[in-house]
Amino acid sequence: MDNQFIISETLPFCKGCGHATVSKSTEKALQKLELNPTDVILVTDIGCHGIIDKAFATHTVHGLHGRSVALGSGISAGLNNPDKKVIVFVGDGGATIGMQHLIDASHNGFNMTVVIHNNMLYGMTGGQPSEFTPEGFKTPTLPEGAQHPGYDICSLATQAGASYVRRITAIGDISEELAEAFSRKGFSLLEIMEICPSYGVKSNPGLKLKQLVKDAGIEIKIYVDKEQKAFQTQEMSNTPELLTPKLNIEKKFEAKLEKPIRMFLSGSAGEGVQSAAELFIRAGMKSGLHVTKKGSYPVTVGVGFSASHLILSPDEILYSGSPQPDVMIVTSADGLKFARKQIEKLSEDKILFIDESLEKPETKAQLISMPLRKEAGARNAMIFALFHYLQKEEFMPMETLKEVFGESKISGNKKLKELVESSF
Amino acid sequence: MQALTDGSRLMTEALVKAGADVFIGYPITPANLLYAYSKNRFKTFLAAPDEITTLQWMSGFSISGKLPVTATSFPGFALMLESINMAYMMELPMVIVLVQRLGPSTGTATCGAQGDLSLLSGMLSGGYSIPVIATSNAHDCWTLADKAIKTANRLRTPVILLTSKEEAMTQFSFDLDLLESIAPVERKFHTSEEPYIPYKRDDDEIPEFLPVSTNKHQVRITASTHNEKGILEGITPAALKNTLKINEKIEKNLASYLFYELDEHPHAETLLVSWGVTANATREAAMELRKNGTPVSFFLPKTLLPLADVYAEILNRYKKIVFAEENHPGQLKKLIYGFKTPSHVHAVNKIGQMIDPQEIIEEVKKHG
């Protein structure tokens, strides 16, 4: 077994940088665990720590700043193999950007280890503070020192459900601690406190890592070491096809229609406008017609208007919009408000069905006012109106709509069923 | 077999049949139906907490040897942009279904549009292209979803399947027997004993793929400028060459994913051009114009990026051209002609509503 994990003679870090300690100890830890380099996937991102990947003999994936944890999560879930070790190296800057990914990975229990190289500032871009910078710690762009304590990512990850969380300092050989984190099932996180020799040391002369950690109240400890449920990717076999004979709507009746009918149904959300519209076009299909149904509604699901544009045609339908409807049916005040402009444009040869409780809008169209809501209830006013419309126009047999209605859930409404049977 | 269906159902089924094995997504109107259908149809379905995570997880699955799909709309797509650049640079196969809605910003979620083509044409830093294939009818939802998967796999690249609210959500009667059968994609990975070089290219400039599940060879995948070994090395000649080769791969293989329809009338001097949701209205306008004695031709580009040379050849054959697009600036027109539209080129543009065939007819008549 080839157990050389670092294949570069030199490491690309400044003298005294904790990143080198992490890298060397990572190799040692993987050797201790007797892993093959190609059973390890090292995921890195932007920041000084991230340039290490070319030195490693493992699989390496170098991604975007702050996204390595999400990328590693995807690799772990994609591999779905706990024998493969996904290790993510991220800095405190990347951990700040990708905080949600860390919480999410802890929460989901992805099989992986995240190693946060926390040197308390952004090293690659000139020493700006991160959200991990401890209170009072100075950086080149924050000479007055940070005003607030840094994030306690270890507490956050623990709360979110990680299996193993530990904070250590990058002093000496830390391979035991890394090996422990790598060996845990599910999600493990190791936060390694470092001090940036270029910016941290210069901005805080004389400050020693151990003392800084102590003064800032940063706890060096194991936060959790408890096996949690690890993520397992579900792979379903033989999922049900979406295009099955069940969708077939067989022609059973004959429509008497020579040119397309364009309909505009307008009512309120939650009052069955869309389902009534669908029943009507199903009836159209049973009568051998081509149909389309385009919905219009606000972004909210349960309030406001709900409208449907239908086309029923003896020929194939290309354009599915309906700027000039032949008939409009309005069953509620919301529907009227939405449809008013269209109603104003209706010509004499068009029809407007409207619930009798609503004000009568100005229109040239033939206006038919009916007690739709009163007789069928608000929830069924639209389907009731469609029955009336078909009774008037007779372009397909009433039996078609009755049959589709009978097969639908809404026919379970006894009162409505009786009303339909007695009226049509 | 006549069915009442919608474009989302056709696309989802076609994507699965073509070999996509994981759907990862965050719900957004009007891409919700794709999400809902995918939940029970894909072999693996993951609900991501946001769109950045979606693209990162997809990339992870792709690196692991899977073929991931997502569906989104502009607000989600905007969040994905940096990660799509990453997937392009890493050369990861995946398909992103972009269901256009009215923008800018959150705009109106439940209103259709064709507003994202300009964004797509400039979405990669450097001005390169990711294949963008746009549906224009039910049949396209089936065939182009299949082609998107096959293209993503063969070219080792993300592919955008561009559609819009009405195409994805409008229900329509459709004869399912008209759909051709779709064969699952054949995935070929590096099998040689020779060391694997992740970005070493074949004659078509396509690098062989090898997932990180292998323990035979080391795999390096890199988002930053890298050489063919996947080593990040800044602006060395080898690394810059590799960057250009990715673009060359997309352009050189355009013929393998070039889709368009051209219905030319032998006496036509006018060409109607449209794409996406407006194509059907334009086709209807062309039919009516012809019926009433005005010969016109109809051109429907479906592969929108990169633009093919043959498109210029077609356009150059006509004295008068009318573009119809559901966006204000005329994004395809601008993509072809730049900021100054030639005087023989006219346009019907609209937002907030589908373009009516009559509006196209009027525009044609207006210019004689």
What are the salient characteristics of this protein?
heterodimer; A: 424 residues; alpha/beta; Pyruvate-ferredoxin Oxidoreductase, domain 3; 7-stranded mixed β-sheet; 6-stranded mixed β-sheet; 15 strands; B: alpha/beta; Rossmann fold; 8-stranded mixed β-sheet; 5-stranded mixed β-sheet; 36% helix; 21% strand
Written description of the protein model:
The complex is a heterodimer of chains A (424) and B (368). Chain A has 424 residues and is of the alpha/beta class. Chain A folds into 2 domains: 18-225, Rossmann fold, CATH 3.40.50; 250-423, 3-Layer(aba) Sandwich (Pyruvate-ferredoxin Oxidoreductase, domain 3), CATH 3.40.920. Chain A is built from 14 helices and 15 strands. Chain A has helices at 18-32, 68-79, 92-97, 99-108, 153-160, 175-183, 200-203, 209-215, 273-286, 333-345, 372-376, 381-393, 398-407, 414-423, and strands at residues 40-44, 59-62, 85-91, 112-118, 121-122, 128-129, 164-169, 187-193, 222-225, 261-268, 290-296, 305-313, 327-330, 351-355, 366-370. In chain A, the strands form 3 sheets. In chain A, strands 2-1-3-4-8-7-9 form a 7-stranded mixed beta sheet, sandwiched between helices. Chain A has a 6-stranded mixed beta sheet with strand order 11-12-10-13-14-15. In chain A, α9 packs parallel to α12 and α9 (273-286) crosses α13 (398-407). With 368 residues, chain B is an alpha/beta fold. Chain B folds into 2 domains: 1-257, Thiamin diphosphate (ThDP)-binding fold, Pyr/PP domains (Rossmann fold, 3-Layer(aba) Sandwich), CATH 3.40.50.970; 259-366, Rossmann fold, CATH 3.40.50. In chain B, 36% of the residues lie in helices and 21% in strands. Chain B is built from 12 helices and 16 strands. Chain B has helices at 7-18, 32-41, 51-63, 74-90, 117-121, 138-155, 165-169, 237-252, 279-291, 309-316, 331-337, 357-366, and strands at residues 2-6, 22-25, 44-47, 68-72, 94-102, 108-112, 132-134, 158-164, 171-175, 220-222, 260-263, 270-274, 296-301, 303-305, 320-325, 345-349. Chain B is globular and about 70 Å long. Chain B starts with a strand and ends with a helix. The mean pLDDT of chain B is 97. Chains A and B meet through β2, α2, α4, α9 and β11 of A and β1, α1, α2, β3 and α3 of B. β2 (59-62) of chain A pairs parallel with β10 of chain B.
